[in-house]
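Hi X.,

You mentioned you wanted examples for the new student's onboarding notes, showing what a folding record looks like when two proteins sit in one file. Here is a clean example. The first protein comes first, with its sequence line followed by its structure tokens.
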Amino acid sequence: MSEVVVHGIFGSPFVRAVLATLEEKGRRYRLQAMKPGEHKSAAYLALHPFGRVPAIEHDGFKLYETQAILRYLDAAFPQPALQPQDPKAAARMNQIMGINDWYLFPDVARIIVFQRIVGPAIFGHTPDEAVIAQAAPKVPVCIGELNRLLGDNPFLAGEHVSLADLLLAPQLDYLSRTPEGRAAMQGTALETWLTRMNVRPSMQATLPPEPLRRAA
């Protein structure tokens, strides 16, 4: 069984999404962990010229961009399948993954989670309440739409766990531990979904490092 090497910063929700997908697949992998800032090094930029995490190597094949990685892993290791066959369910999965990458992460989680959790735990920063206040109105917009799209389904794309669940759960796990995220998610179906996701073995096996858990 060939090993998948995952390059990334332990604690990144995008890295966790890749690791959780590999856990769901039951595949052997190795996390090549980097320190904060190391993703801008010359060595890593040779692998990922945009200096983001994660990137992977598998049998000589190199790939970056989380959505591309997740889809590659699902195609390379077909069982269990993590993409719906039904066109509408697949479209919903893709839509929700796009919401994460275009709205939830850049407009909300990147700001609030850094200010509330990552900055204090890793860099010793004090949260900037003015910066948080600018992002806070977008929290209920993102959470409300994700909750609407979830509806009565057990998972984001329907009856079975998909790549959308594995991409969103690490992101929302952090956000739900902030006052802003907790208030928006409280009592929603999305909160129940996150509880369901967090007890999965794949999520338990990829918990963030202890300092980040303590900060949250």
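Then the second protein repeats the pattern, sequence line and then tokens:
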Amino acid sequence: MGSLKSILINHDREKLLNALVYFSKNTRSCGKTKLFKLLYFLDFIHFRETGKSVTGLDYYAWEKGPVPQDLFFELKQPDKDLKETIALLEQFGDEDVKLCQVIAKKPFDPKFFSKRELKMMKDLAYIFRGALAKDMVEVTHLKGSPWDKTLKEKGLRKRIDYLLAVDGSKGSLNLEEVKERILEINEVRQIFENG
């Protein structure tokens, strides 16, 4: 049996791969940019409500919005499990703009997700089902969003702190609750990693 750290990493990876499948199958015109935005909403909304992201991805403040940088670069040279999960169908649209459609290559497996996570994915897929990537870019650029705050305070290509999602809105934990949950999660991980 693997260490807890490798089990947790594999579980996060399975969640990521299955989230890619879910969003590609349950939204229209799901290209890379739209997919990145859906993952961002999933992770940051879930973090705001629970103190933990769904996929474990880190997002960076790029010019066109938050980007899961590691996934962005992996899509250029995908690992075996990613190649087996999705395909990128590149084509040219209007004005020779290169478009990239994300195509699921395997069925979605819900067993890796909690009921809350599944509901959140379903809700996001419903809300953004027909949205175009450019519309989603506008939503992530709203004044005061985690992307906006990171860009203004740290600059371009800097990591967006998940704590910026904690905003006092309905359903949001307060900052102290989130910090306490993060400490508890880290303590449990250390116990299992050192034990």
